[in-house]
Amino acid sequence: MKKFSIIILVFALSMSAACGKGERSDTKIKLEDVADFVLEVEDGRDVKILQLTDIQIIDSAQRRYDSRLGKWAIENWATDKIEERAWRFTREAVEKAQPDLIVLSGDNVYGEFDDAGTSLQALVAEIDGYGIPWTFTFGNHDNETVKGIEWTCEQYMNADHCIFTRGDINNVDGNGNFNIAVMQGGKLTEIIWLMDSNGKTSGDREQNLFHEEGLRVNQITWFTERSEKLKEYNGGVSPKNIGFFHHPMRAAGEAAVPYGYNSAKHEIGENKSFKTVIIPENDEGAFGAMHVDPNTYVDNEFYFHNLLKTYACEGWFFGHEHQNNASAFYEGVRYTYGLKASQYDAYVKGEVGGTLITVGEGKMKVRHLYTDLPD
Predict the structure, then answer these.
(1) Which of 213, 215, 251, 357 is deepest in the core (most CB within 10 A)?
(2) In angstroms, how far is CA 274 from the centroid of its own chain?
(3) In which domain, by residue range, is 325 found?
(4) pLDDT by residue (tens digit) across 97-127?
């Protein structure tokens, strides 16, 4: 009963926090009213979170028709290539980071090439085998498998160390809108948001899958209401928080403008043609690269970005654009493309690995953990 044991663990932590460890004396709101899960970390040190994005396992043997892939892809994305293409990189990143929590930020499996569900099962077994609490968001490709959303979610929720819920799917669109409270010494030190930025290849209302990229109105309402309750729980001050979903926000593009980013397509910067952007590490803490102009941005009206500013968000993290890994600030919020964690589909040589996020009493720190392994 692996699923049952996880629920009991999380419930026990929440009840422990509510009975004096995490509940503030000046509010009637309890921790379990504002957090879906609790991650207990010992006091007196920073908390390390490892982002692994766009692992995107492709099993060429499961292609739906022969002409879908060329000869090179069939050979290099064969079933037995998963160690070479993915696990050696994820294991190296975990060994380097020694994280308290692992976050997969979408396109974990290329669902079109996993109608048998074996790639997802391999992913869950591998990540769960690290023995570290982990969680995830869905990307645009995860839900393409004919297995369906319920079966897919069950594979994650049945894992010993995976922290996940579909969320309030009757009232909030998407799958996997929830948060995790980090507790240290009885104190709430960080909230971690996981949200579904939609953009599925095919929409299916019955499965809570939506084709258009971006957060839907009821997701933003859920985030706002939960943030207000967190503020009340925390004595009138928004707790520090970070978040993850799959698609990049327009604010990430604006953050790269000071480093030469221009996009005629998105009318950003000087509205010129895109050229590769390399951000040198600087005193502000920005770094990374944009090798491609994103196909799309979400939150083009900056509504969600403004909410992040309002509620003391330190940073938001995403993937989707495999060849981008820029991290920079826009109006006080850090926006980061995670470093692609595998050699499936498109990637940049030498720019594979994981992204280490350190939170705690001080300022959040972010850095990429580039692989030392041969290509």
Answers:
(1) 357
(2) 26
(3) 45-181+193-209+244-370
(4) 999 999 999 999 999 999 999 999 999 999 9
